[in-house]
């Protein structure tokens, strides 16, 4: 029987805490017992159990597989908030990185994009949109904008499924100096949710970054949308 929660603490939160202990015992990849039996064992209603399971799924601790059940999820991928290659950061954690190209075209810069890239309005801009993969599964959707005038040979030297960071540094001689990144939570659009194989109710983390070289010139602006159940971020803070 689940203990009575303290005043002001929702019952499903107590259930959620006890479920986490159960997940640790079951281990990664194990199937979660049926909701009905869990509710009976915990002495709560199925609605309360369902709410706790729903929150643990949103937190990335559980993963539902249609027609199969709910399973203990693998730990979240923790990405550094730093000017490093996505490929290298993922490999350092023992995962296989990958990318699927959604689009690679040229567009005229609007006023906001022109200001962020330090170019004139209507100047040509590369727009590279790719689904980011970890072990073959989509975890993020990244859209990068770069000035065509500054990188006229980008299409010739970039492998669309390869590391853009590595291409810019090794092939085009760019030296990254600093970046500014803003992180917020958002709800995915229907298109974004479809590309990330997620539901629109799943929390997403949105990162907007401007990267500059060692001379202070803007290299790129990047919009990255990540599944909140699969990815977390780490920053090193110093006084």
Automatic annotation (TrEMBL):
InterPro entries: Bact_HTH_transcr_reg, Chorismate_lyase_/UTRA_dom_sf, Tscrpt_reg_HTH_GntR, UTRA, WH-like_DNA-bd_sf, WH_DNA-bd_sf. Residues 7-75 form the HTH gntR-type domain. CDD domains: WHTH_GntR. Keywords: DNA-binding, Transcription, Transcription regulation. PROSITE patterns: HTH_GNTR (PS50949). PANTHER family: MANNOSYL-D-GLYCERATE TRANSPORT/METABOLISM SYSTEM REPRESSOR MNGR-RELATED, MANNOSYL-D-GLYCERATE TRANSPORT_METABOLISM SYSTEM REPRESSOR MNGR-RELATED. This is GntR family transcriptional regulator. It comes from Kribbella deserti. The lineage of its organism: Bacteria, Bacillati, Actinomycetota, Actinomycetes, Propionibacteriales.
